[in-house]
Amino acid sequence: MSVTAAQGFEAAGVAVGLKSTGANDVAVVVNRGPKKVGAAVFTTNRAKANPILWSEQVIGDGLVEAIVLNSGGANCFTGSFGFQTTHQTAEKAAELLGIGAGDVLVCSTGLIGTGDEVFRGKVLDGVDQGIAALSTDGGEAASLAIMTTDSRPKRSVVTRGDWTIGGMAKGAGMLAPGLATMLVVVTTDADLDAAAADAALREATRVSFDRLDSDGCMSTNDQVTLLASGASGIRPDPVEFTSALTELCLDLAAQLQGDAEGASHDITIEVVGAANEDDAVTVGRSVARNNLFKAAIFGNDPNWGRVLAAIGTTDAAFDPYDVDVSFNGVRVCTAGGPDRPREEVDLTPRATHILIDLRVGDAAATILTNDLTHDYVHENSAYSS
Amino acid sequence: MSVTAAQGFEAAGVAVGLKSTGANDVAVVVNRGPKKVGAAVFTTNRAKANPILWSEQVIGDGLVEAIVLNSGGANCFTGSFGFQTTHQTAEKAAELLGIGAGDVLVCSTGLIGTGDEVFRGKVLDGVDQGIAALSTDGGEAASLAIMTTDSRPKRSVVTRGDWTIGGMAKGAGMLAPGLATMLVVVTTDADLDAAAADAALREATRVSFDRLDSDGCMSTNDQVTLLASGASGIRPDPVEFTSALTELCLDLAAQLQGDAEGASHDITIEVVGAANEDDAVTVGRSVARNNLFKAAIFGNDPNWGRVLAAIGTTDAAFDPYDVDVSFNGVRVCTAGGPDRPREEVDLTPRATHILIDLRVGDAAATILTNDLTHDYVHENSAYSS
């Protein structure tokens, strides 16, 4: 059900030829209210695609009525023509829905530099067809339309009493902090004001999508959007709502990790004993981005030396001779020296757990990443994306 | 000739079984004077191997008489036993040479965590045999003894008038700023005081080894050492000496790049038009470390979008819509938009040139890197290193 699980939302996914496969490639999600609240977080990449530049303006007043998303072209670095394409996309949706263009978000994903007249024509066609196809069970079709190299759609629903949160996500590569080539739309029928929606979204993404660092490469097009219709008539406690939203975002993040391009291991890097949360995140991210560590995991090699070498490049508080490292529950390094023999570690399961104890404090954080594989190299060298 | 090209030096390389192949694995270089000047730069990784911890103490007074290097084991994270091994190595060399242990540098390279009693016995044996084999034409044997996954030795000689600089290097992986798994020994018969040697070495490494960023992974064992014998009797102009030393270091850095693990392209990333040199280095490094860019080059794909996305993650001064990018002389991106068709770019040669013009100032810097290939993944996943 994804984005149509919550009351007050309609969605559609249609195929207009942006994908050569004939699969769905334009999605539309509309908030029928009664409230039309929106919040969004965007890539922190300074090279931002046209839809990001547009959506950053739209989100300013916290009022969003619809969102149009396309795969098959990022519309990034396509100049003023590309920005006009995004603008026309919002205007066409607004016209057909009888709303203002300034309340329509736009997202695009695909190859950078793609955004010519043919692309524009297809996207506008998709708006037409998508709005004609809107329905309260269009969530599944929409989730298919945003896929690029994803092997499967990502959907999640969380319900608390009488209100619901539903979401869809795409992204199997370039996942990184700052949200890389990740498009996420989350809808809820909870009654939220714009400030509450924004606060909950920022907190939920901070500990979910922002800690998914599949390959360290940050996209130009990432956007995570939360739309709230208030259709349940219930205004949840902010802490409870944030908790439910975080649960949903963590589920979607795990689905993104599990479908990362070419990966053969889903690696959870749990850092404990840190002086503070920032240190724990820094250490986890440094390990997650270390190609030698990632290649070792692909080779089922519990190479703790590469873990310590990666930690050593950070400015986190730690003593290299007082760090413990476990691979899948086996402590291979104690106090910066060898402990259990590496033969005891079984790295054949896809799920991989690295526990790093910095032994200086009580803070912790978990970073999700993937291994570096032949398939990753193949998928990112054999085709332009 | 490498480290024995300059007058006043003897060297040897011997095989003591640290390498299972039976190849040379311990090198000794001795400065016979008349001057015994030494300077060194070390990995900036906070997780430092035992030989680094030792050598940092030795170099303090600028006086170095000998250096012992071994492959086949990094002696890193091997506890106090490992530090004692390094200490004993220096003491044994000192005893045999009739000098002080505090004037003997030690370097190790190989698998982290390797440094048990067997390792110690072989290294000490290597000191014995190496010192017995010292000769003024031992530079070649020494350059073979420091190789690990290198497919060939790296040697270079630069002569200016009556003085000479010679050097050897090893390292085919983990090359990164801060000097990663790179061992370099450079000797000269120029007459330098310790301060001049240190200043020249820092400047030369800053623009050579520090700008070689093959895979972004920083080692625990890197060390670049300069030994000066003064045997030529000539005290060169500091600018001229630094220039010659830089030329030699750039040659060795290019040899390291050309032999990087699994690489199929040697990529020169030239950043011009930067506001300052730091910005140019930051931008070049960000592109050099972007796995998607590196995989694209492996696939002979001039994917300039990935270049701009990598630039966008930096804090350098630039406008994403006023950046030009060329691949091998073909301007594929002008002012942040498409220019020449990608079909015009020929990326089949191993030598690859990326030119990035930030168009905000006059500063420039060049970063050397490699592509991300199947062989890189294979070499770093199939074996522990």
From TrEMBL, chains A, B:
**Site label Cleavage, positions:** A180, T181
**Major localization class:** cytoplasm
Swiss-Prot/TrEMBL catalytic activity: N(2)-acetyl-L-ornithine + L-glutamate = N-acetyl-L-glutamate + L-ornithine; L-glutamate + acetyl-CoA = N-acetyl-L-glutamate + CoA + H(+)
Q: Name it.
A: Arginine biosynthesis bifunctional protein ArgJ
> Cellular location of this protein?
Cytoplasm
Entry function = Catalyzes two activities which are involved in the cyclic version of arginine biosynthesis: the synthesis of N-acetylglutamate from glutamate and acetyl-CoA as the acetyl donor, and of ornithine by transacetylation between N(2)-acetylornithine and glutamate.
Q: Which family does it belong to?
A: Belongs to the ArgJ family.
One GO biological process term: L-arginine biosynthetic process
The record's CDD domains line, in alphabetical order, gives: OAT
Q: Which GO terms describe its molecular function?
A: L-glutamate N-acetyltransferase activity; L-glutamate N-acetyltransferase activity, acting on acetyl-L-ornithine as donor
Q: In which pathway does it act?
A: Amino-acid biosynthesis; L-arginine biosynthesis; L-ornithine and N-acetyl-L-glutamate from L-glutamate and N(2)-acetyl-L-ornithine (cyclic): step 1/1; Amino-acid biosynthesis; L-arginine biosynthesis; N(2)-acetyl-L-ornithine from L-glutamate: step 1/4
Q: Which UniProt keywords apply?
A: Acyltransferase, Amino-acid biosynthesis, Arginine biosynthesis, Autocatalytic cleavage, Cytoplasm, Multifunctional enzyme, Transferase
Please tell me one Gene Ontology term that the record gives under cellular component: cytoplasm
Q: What is its EC number?
A: 2.3.1.35, 2.3.1.1
Q: State the organism named in the record.
A: Microbacterium oleivorans
Q: Does the keyword Transferase apply?
A: yes
